[in-house]
Amino acid sequence: MVGSVVSGAGGGAITVITITTTTPTTPTTPPRLEQPRPLIPTADAKPRARHESHTWRRHDRGSRRIMRGACACAVVCALVALCAAAGLDEGTRAAAERQLLALLGLPRRPPHTHRPPPPVPQAMRLLYDESAIPAAAANTARSFYHTPTELDDRFPGEHRFRLYFNISGVPADEIARGADLTFQRAVGTTGNQRLLLYDVVRPGRKGKSEPILRLLDSIPLRVAEGTVNADALGAARRWLKEPKHNHGLLVRVLEEGSGSTDAKFPHVRVRRRATDAEEEWRSLQPLLMLYTEDERARAARERGETKLTRNKRAAQRRGHRAHHRRKEAREICQRRPLFVDFADVGWSDWIVAPHGYDAYYCQGDCPFPLADHLNGTNHAIVQTLVNSVNPAAVPKACCVPTQLSSISMLYMDEVNNVVLKNYQDMMVVGCGCR
Question: How far apart, in whole angstroms, are the C-alpha atoms of residue 57 and residue 225?
Answer without folding.
Answer: 62
